[in-house]
């Protein structure tokens, strides 16, 4: 009689490989990500409604918005910081949101990786471009054709 | 759960009973159609739906209908069950798209004019018909160290605990490990990596037990990328829990505890 | 043949099995085999509490507890065992608390206690608060806590492994007085893996049976579908006697028609029983402790009320459990689950309406005979080395002819612990008993016969007829005629059982096969139960013979021992030999049992 004592308890602690967690994650990234979503959400409510109020309600309201209006705002460091904060928080908030959606709905690791790479690239491009625009925006660049410039540049 | 040992008032020796008290009357019978998701890899790799037309009675539950189908129509219909009154947690299944215990779902509470669909719970590998492999579920449970860990000397008598401290974790002691919550969670459905509501509920039971000293270790485990932060507060788990545990609230309290510890 | 080798194999993962596993697992290589998952066991359905004379809320001591247990069991209790249980109850409760069990607390933070049926102060003077509890889910908490500690100690579980045979060998031996006899030895168990349909043999130095009761021989029962007397049946088929099988406890308060348990704790917290006239009828039957009389007395009183036409409902077939005079907040704090059962299953609101209840088969006092160490006996005084039993499957006998409420949770903890320790200690010094070459042959034959059964009888139909008969004839009231009729029905059912059909021919989770095998055990156990009941021509505890309504200490103050014996015949049933075993007395003389 072949006595084998090596047979493992088959339904005791042996689980299908796809359910095995791949190692422990170190650090508190997910916690900070979670916290960031809540805090950035609160700040964004203030920033966005402030932005909408100033742009749409104050003075002549929506009718006052034109190239000059935007140019004027970005001449002011206060509005530069405001818009920069709004851009960064909204982009990070949105990117993280889409990241979790990808994590929740992409079933294969490969798909997940691809989608997240695309997401991070797109976000990086928008954030970099947006930041550049806010800080380097010059409504009246020197040497430009006069008919392309807004009227106040001649002053 | 206050420990009030007040003497109850001695009840009357005789009272007038209202007529017809305690229910009664004819037991109504009705016809139901049970649509059961069948799967048997010994026969076919594909699942299919079977319909059973059954005559059921007043207080019958979905489990009674399944039994009737098995006992009178098709003996190969397979499902787990034991206590049949909602305390053992064997028969969690998807009934009309919602996770329920078959023994706690009365047929009369369902719309019997349409077929009642019964499937295995989602997110765990189906083994046969309504039976799933529970090991991944229990593995997550084991990982959160679901047992009292107490440092220091063992007292000779019981450890003292105030009624308020006992009440603090009362809700999460009710868990029967039926997996209705975990298998109702969309995050768990994706890849089965998430610890799942049940494991967090059982961690909560110890984290908030004043006698336990290993709360920090459990919080660290659940601070994992597959831990509490994957909860999206969809409340599916709370809705599914046959014991009425406020599962999502428990998860939120664990999140709060992780944050309080770190910040 | 796949053979696993363990020092200790525990059959069953309920309270007794896991309590044993916690002890044994720390001392020896241990495997626990269960036909369910551990947390599905029916210990989890126990509600009210676990008695121990902690004296946390009022004066109490273990000697009073011993007396109550013995009197509650109508003096058929082995008094040495009752003493052990009552004495060790205190540590059993404290052990559980240290393992993490969340008991309800007193204002000082100690374990709270409440009243329970038959538990009294100073030998019957008045009800005493002795039951330690966690709301009305004490059993659930015990089961979860024990499982948690099994996880902690890394106990190896074989879930959904259905044990079908016990490997018993016989050796020639000689007694102290020189008479030769056959000494039984245990080599292991044979199990059937439900998931794969494979047979696995487990060789073990010690085997602990903790497989629970046999409530499913009755139709109206608080027991789970899985409680089919497998452990008792396996032992019986292997020549091990069964003790006191005629004694079955009928719990007074099952939900009428369904049998779902409503804890005695309801009455402990002040609920009372009323008949159709609104009368608190227990005042007539037990003037001192009324609704908190032991279960056999209350169940019988209820059945009598119904029989005399004072039942409620359209068919006058139940009485009412009245909680309406209790504060809803108090009910919610102490009895949340059972009130939910009433709402869910009967649609009755216990705050404002009384709940329909009727006795439901609840607990088998009898079972595999053991001594106070948990060692199984092969006759009145010879142990089988290495074989242990604990919990409902065993008969120590601490419950005698009627178990007191809460004493089963106590039994599993005290004797589960003892069995676990003793099994592991025995395994340390014992030698392996060789597993026979054809160890799995009987089991394969059993399983394949059932799998290939292509007869005309449906298993469910036979089971239903058995349960209906048992409910009608072997319940609270029994007579010679009802019992004889039952034996005839069982005999014909056993014949028809040979002609069953099993539709599922597969290997994977073949639960059709499982139910057919279980029915075989049910039929065996029902027959033993009925034969023993017919033989006991007296009324004692849970066994009430209308034709012999009095206790007869002269002829029947002894345990019954039923053996499988092809050559014997008892009460015109071939194959069963009925012997007796003396009751152990220490300090309590039998008295008339009045409450």
UniProtKB/TrEMBL annotation, chain A:
<dbReference type="InterPro" id="IPR000701">
    <property type="entry name" value="SuccDH_FuR_B_TM-su"/>
</dbReference>
<feature type="transmembrane region" description="Helical">
    <location>
        <begin position="78"/>
        <end position="98"/>
    </location>
</feature>
<keyword id="KW-0408">Iron</keyword>
<feature type="transmembrane region" description="Helical">
    <location>
        <begin position="118"/>
        <end position="137"/>
    </location>
</feature>
<keyword id="KW-1133">Transmembrane helix</keyword>
<keyword id="KW-0812">Transmembrane</keyword>
<keyword id="KW-0472">Membrane</keyword>
<feature type="transmembrane region" description="Helical">
    <location>
        <begin position="31"/>
        <end position="58"/>
    </location>
</feature>
<keyword id="KW-0349">Heme</keyword>
<dbReference type="Pfam" id="PF01127">
    <property type="entry name" value="Sdh_cyt"/>
</dbReference>
<dbReference type="InterPro" id="IPR034804">
    <property type="entry name" value="SQR/QFR_C/D"/>
</dbReference>
<keyword id="KW-0479">Metal-binding</keyword>
<protein>
    <submittedName>
        <fullName>Succinate dehydrogenase hydrophobic membrane anchor subunit</fullName>
    </submittedName>
</protein>
Automatic annotation (TrEMBL), chain B:
<comment type="pathway">
    <text>Carbohydrate metabolism; tricarboxylic acid cycle.</text>
</comment>
<keyword id="KW-0411">Iron-sulfur</keyword>
<dbReference type="InterPro" id="IPR001041">
    <property type="entry name" value="2Fe-2S_ferredoxin-type"/>
</dbReference>
<dbReference type="InterPro" id="IPR036010">
    <property type="entry name" value="2Fe-2S_ferredoxin-like_sf"/>
</dbReference>
<dbReference type="InterPro" id="IPR025192">
    <property type="entry name" value="Succ_DH/fum_Rdtase_N"/>
</dbReference>
<keyword id="KW-0816">Tricarboxylic acid cycle</keyword>
<feature type="domain" description="4Fe-4S ferredoxin-type">
    <location>
        <begin position="165"/>
        <end position="187"/>
    </location>
</feature>
<keyword id="KW-0004">4Fe-4S</keyword>
<dbReference type="InterPro" id="IPR012675">
    <property type="entry name" value="Beta-grasp_dom_sf"/>
</dbReference>
<comment type="similarity">
    <text>Belongs to the succinate dehydrogenase/fumarate reductase iron-sulfur protein family.</text>
</comment>
<dbReference type="Pfam" id="PF13085">
    <property type="entry name" value="Fer2_3"/>
</dbReference>
<dbReference type="InterPro" id="IPR050573">
    <property type="entry name" value="SDH/FRD_Iron-Sulfur"/>
</dbReference>
<keyword id="KW-0003">3Fe-4S</keyword>
<protein>
    <recommendedName>
        <fullName>Fumarate reductase iron-sulfur subunit</fullName>
        <ecNumber>1.3.5.1</ecNumber>
    </recommendedName>
</protein>
<keyword id="KW-0560">Oxidoreductase</keyword>
UniProtKB/TrEMBL annotation, chain C:
<dbReference type="InterPro" id="IPR030664">
    <property type="entry name" value="SdhA/FrdA/AprA"/>
</dbReference>
<keyword id="KW-0816">Tricarboxylic acid cycle</keyword>
<keyword id="KW-0560">Oxidoreductase</keyword>
<keyword id="KW-0249">Electron transport</keyword>
<dbReference type="InterPro" id="IPR015939">
    <property type="entry name" value="Fum_Rdtase/Succ_DH_flav-like_C"/>
</dbReference>
<keyword id="KW-0274">FAD</keyword>
<dbReference type="InterPro" id="IPR003953">
    <property type="entry name" value="FAD-dep_OxRdtase_2_FAD-bd"/>
</dbReference>
<feature type="domain" description="FAD-dependent oxidoreductase 2 FAD-binding">
    <location>
        <begin position="7"/>
        <end position="409"/>
    </location>
</feature>
<keyword id="KW-0813">Transport</keyword>
<dbReference type="InterPro" id="IPR014006">
    <property type="entry name" value="Succ_Dhase_FrdA_Gneg"/>
</dbReference>
<dbReference type="InterPro" id="IPR037099">
    <property type="entry name" value="Fum_R/Succ_DH_flav-like_C_sf"/>
</dbReference>
<dbReference type="Pfam" id="PF00890">
    <property type="entry name" value="FAD_binding_2"/>
</dbReference>
<comment type="similarity">
    <text>Belongs to the FAD-dependent oxidoreductase 2 family. FRD/SDH subfamily.</text>
</comment>
<comment type="pathway">
    <text>Carbohydrate metabolism; tricarboxylic acid cycle; fumarate from succinate (bacterial route): step 1/1.</text>
</comment>
<protein>
    <recommendedName>
        <fullName>Succinate dehydrogenase flavoprotein subunit</fullName>
        <ecNumber>1.3.5.1</ecNumber>
    </recommendedName>
</protein>
């Amino acid at each position: 009689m072949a006595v084998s004592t090596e047979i493992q308890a088959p339904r005791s602690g042996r689980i299908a490989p796809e359910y095995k967690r791949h190692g422990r994650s170190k650090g508190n990234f997910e916690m900070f990500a979670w916290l960031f979503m809540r805090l950035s959400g609160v700040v964004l409510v203030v920033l966005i409604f402030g932005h909408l109020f100033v742009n749409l309600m104050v003075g002549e309201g929506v009718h006052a918005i034109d190239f000059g209006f935007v140019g004027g705002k970005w001449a002011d460091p206060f509005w530069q910081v405001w818009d920069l904060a709004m851009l960064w928080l909204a982009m990070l908030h949105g990117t993280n949101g889409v990241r979790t959606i990808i994590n929740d709905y992409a079933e294969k690791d490969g798909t997940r990786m691809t989608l997240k790479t695309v997401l991070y690239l797109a976000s990086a491009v928008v954030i970099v471009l947006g930041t550049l625009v806010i800080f380097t925006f010059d409504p009246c660049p020197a040497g430009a054709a006069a008919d392309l410039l807004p009227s106040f540049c001649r002053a | 759960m206050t420990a009030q040992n007040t003497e109850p008032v001695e009840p009357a020796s005789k009272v007038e009973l209202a007529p017809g008290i305690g229910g009664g009357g004819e037991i109504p019978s009705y016809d139901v159609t049970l649509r059961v998701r069948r799967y048997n890899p010994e026969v076919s790799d594909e699942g299919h739906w079977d319909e059973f037309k059954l005559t059921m009675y007043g207080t019958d539950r979905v489990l009674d209908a399944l039994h009737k189908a098995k006992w009178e129509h098709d003996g190969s219909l397979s499902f787990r069950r034991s206590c049949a009154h909602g305390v053992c947690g064997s028969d969690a299944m998807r009934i009309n798209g919602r996770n329920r215990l078959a023994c706690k779902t009365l047929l009369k509470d369902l719309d019997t004019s349409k077929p009642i669909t019964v499937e295995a719970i989602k997110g765990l590998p189906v083994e046969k018909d309504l039976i799933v492999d529970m090991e991944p579920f229990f593995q997550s449970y084991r990982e959160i160290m679901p047992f009292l860990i107490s440092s220091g000397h063992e007292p000779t008598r019981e450890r003292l605990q105030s009624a308020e401290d006992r009440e603090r974790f009362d809700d999460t002691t009710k868990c029967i490990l039926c997996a209705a919550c975990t298998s109702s969670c969309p995050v768990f459905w994706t890849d089965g990596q998430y610890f799942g509501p049940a494991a967090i509920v059982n961690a909560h039971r110890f984290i908030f037990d004043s006698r336990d000293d290993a709360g920090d270790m459990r919080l660290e485990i659940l601070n994992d990328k597959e831990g509490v932060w994957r909860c999206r507060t969809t409340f599916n788990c709370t809705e599914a829990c046959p014991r009425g545990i406020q599962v999502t609230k428990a998860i939120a309290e664990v999140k709060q505890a992780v944050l309080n510890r770190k910040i | 043949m796949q053979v696993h080798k363990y020092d200790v194999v525990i059959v069953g993962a309920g309270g007794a099995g896991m309590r044993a596993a916690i002890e044994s697992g720390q001392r020896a290589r241990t495997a626990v085999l269960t036909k369910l998952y551990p947390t599905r066991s029916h210990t989890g359905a126990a509600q009210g509490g676990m008695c121990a004379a902690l004296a946390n809320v009022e004066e109490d001591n273990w000697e009073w507890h011993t007396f109550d247990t013995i009197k509650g069991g109508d003096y058929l209790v082995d008094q040495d065992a009752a003493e052990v249980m009552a004495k060790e109850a205190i540590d059993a409760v404290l052990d559980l608390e240290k393992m993490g069990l969340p008991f309800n607390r007193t204002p000082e933070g100690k374990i709270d206690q409440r009243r329970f049926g038959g538990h009294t102060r100073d030998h019957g003077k008045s009800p005493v608060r002795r039951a330690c509890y966690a709301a009305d889910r004490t059993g659930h908490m015990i089961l979860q806590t024990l499982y948690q500690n099994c996880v902690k100690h890394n106990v190896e579980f074989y879930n959904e492994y259905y044990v079908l045979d016990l490997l018993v060998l016989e050796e020639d031996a000689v007694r102290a007085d020189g008479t030769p006899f056959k000494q039984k030895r245990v080599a292991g168990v044979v199990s059937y893996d439900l998931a794969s349909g494979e047979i696995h043999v487990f060789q073990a130095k010690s085997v602990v049976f903790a497989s629970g009761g046999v409530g499913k021989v009755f139709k109206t029962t608080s027991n789970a579908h899985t409680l089919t007397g497998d452990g008792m049946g396996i032992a019986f088929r292997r020549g091990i006697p069964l003790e006191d099988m005629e004694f079955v406890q009928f719990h007074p308060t099952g939900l009428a028609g369904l049998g779902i348990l409503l804890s005695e704790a309801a009455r402990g917290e002040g609920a009372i029983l009323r008949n159709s006239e609104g009368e608190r009828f227990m005042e007539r039957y037990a003037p001192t402790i009324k609704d908190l009389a032991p279960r056999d007395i209350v169940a019988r009183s209820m059945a009598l009320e119904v029989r005399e036409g004072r039942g409620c409902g359209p068919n006058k077939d139940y009485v009412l459990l009245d909680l309406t005079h209790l504060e809803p907040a108090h009910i919610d704090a102490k009895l949340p689950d059972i009130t939910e059962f009433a709402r869910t299953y009967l649609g009755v609101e216990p705050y404002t309406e009384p709940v329909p209840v009727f006795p439901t088969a609840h607990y088998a006092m009898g079972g595999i005979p053991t001594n106070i160490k948990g060692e199984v006996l092969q006759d009145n005084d010879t142990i089988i080395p290495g074989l242990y039993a604990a919990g409902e499957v065993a008969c120590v006998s601490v419950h005698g002819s009627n178990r007191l409420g809460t004493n089963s949770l106590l039994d599993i903890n005290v004797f589960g612990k003892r069995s676990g320790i003793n099994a592991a200690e025995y395994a340390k010094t014992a030698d392996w008993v060789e597993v026979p070459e054809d160890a799995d042959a009987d089991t394969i034959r059993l399983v394949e016969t059932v799998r290939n059964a292509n007869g005309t009888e449906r298993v469910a139909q036979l089971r239903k007829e058995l349960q209906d008969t048992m409910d009608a004839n072997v319940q609270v009231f029994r007579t010679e005629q009802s019992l004889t009729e039952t034996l005839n029905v069982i005999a014909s059912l056993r014949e028809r059982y040979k002609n069953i059909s099993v539709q599922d021919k597969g290997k994977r989770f073949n639960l059709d096969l499982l139910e057919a095998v279980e029915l075989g055990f049910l039929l065996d156990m029902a027959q033993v139960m009925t034969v023993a009941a017919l033989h006991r021509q007296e009324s004692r505890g849970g066994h009430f013979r209308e034709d012999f309504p009095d206790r007869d200490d002269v002829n029947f103050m002894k345990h019954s021992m039923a053996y499988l014996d092809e050559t014997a015949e008892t009460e015109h049933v071939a194959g069963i030999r009925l012997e007796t075993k003396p009751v152990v007395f220490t300090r309590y003389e039998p008295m008339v049992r009045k409450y």
